[in-house]
Inverse folding.
């Protein structure tokens, strides 16, 4: 009787070899990302520790955004490689925290009297018209605006001055491209987003999670294209 190698193990061996080849291609990205991630986490701690010291806070926040920009640049480079070689890892957004389905479900009443804080780790850099990609002037304008919000409470920002275009917006009121992008990011269960006005056309978009007063920033919208009426 002829010896026959087990096909299941042969297939496993071939599959493992293919995985090894793919992992070698991605090793540089992984190494760079882990280094930048550690640097980013250190910057986040510096930002937290410098609250109450405006000069130190501004310096720490600027460094944090510099590192975040490097991470975004690395992600752009990686995605370009994926397009050339074909996707190897699904490009899906899998939020660690449970995302609230309704605006009321994140208990706004528990944070309305608190001053705002910002989270950047959910920013979407790949959206076509409203990806979180800023030039130096846009970045400076955004920082000035966010700092101005930090003297107010969330209730004052979102409810007391609606003429300033800072408020909750129902997802159903968004443009088709924005709703499609939420679906791609696995955020389509959100019923509301928060929009903050940076200047006449420009908006920042984000959402809350739980009773955390941090707004998770998602999109930078320089031409107000997230909202349906602008399309």
């Amino acid at each position: 009787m002829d010896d026959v190698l087990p096909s299941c193990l042969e297939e496993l061996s071939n599959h493992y070899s293919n995985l090894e080849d793919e992992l070698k291609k991605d090793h540089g990205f992984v190494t760079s990302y882990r280094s930048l991630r550690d640097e980013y986490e250190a910057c986040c701690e510096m930002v937290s520790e410098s609250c109450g010291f405006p000069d130190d806070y501004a310096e720490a926040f600027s460094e944090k955004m510099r590192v975040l920009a490097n991470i975004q640049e690395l992600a752009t480079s990686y995605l370009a490689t994926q397009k050339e070689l074909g996707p190897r890892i699904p490009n899906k957004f899998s939020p660690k925290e449970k995302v609230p389905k309704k605006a009321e479900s994140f208990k706004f009443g528990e944070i309305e009297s608190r001053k705002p804080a910002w989270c950047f780790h959910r920013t979407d850099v790949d959206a076509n018209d409203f990806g979180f990609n800023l030039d130096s002037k846009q970045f400076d304008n955004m920082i000035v605006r966010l700092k101005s919000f930090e003297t107010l409470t969330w209730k004052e920002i979102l409810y007391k001055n609606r003429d300033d275009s800072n408020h909750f917006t129902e997802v159903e009121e968004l443009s088709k491209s924005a709703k499609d992008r939420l679906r791609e990011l696995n955020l389509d269960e959100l019923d509301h987003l928060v929009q903050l006005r940076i200047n006449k056309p420009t908006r920042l978009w984000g959402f809350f999670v739980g009773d955390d007063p941090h707004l998770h920033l998602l999109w930078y919208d320089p031409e107000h294209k997230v909202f349906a009426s602008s399309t």
